[in-house]
Amino acid sequence: MPKTRAVVISACLLGKKCRFDGGACTHSKVIKAFEEWEIIPLCPEEIGDLATPRPRARIVGEGCSADGNDVLNHQAKVVTEKGEDVTAAMLKKAGVKVVSDVLFMALCCQKNRGLTTFNF
How, if at all, do strands 76-80 and 6-10 pair? Predict the structure, then answer.
């Protein structure tokens, strides 16, 4: 029976070695939770042509609660630990549209929502 629902999940959470450090951040609970769905893996950094491995990057903006929405609204930047602004690379594919029946689920290993969460 074909799967009728789809979910986009960060590829590193599915076991792909595409994190900044070349590793994965596999979450078996995420995989199990969506086993009845078609899972579409996505690595936003690789889509933005950033290398793996790459310097760790974080969202920098006003206060300590800046997130992906702030980046999309040009109120925050994505900056590597070396101080390089990689915002343009991260926003490179932000115009991608997903059909309305595809649910986007980005589960991060950090407290705040990342940029990918707001791309869809």
Answer: unpaired
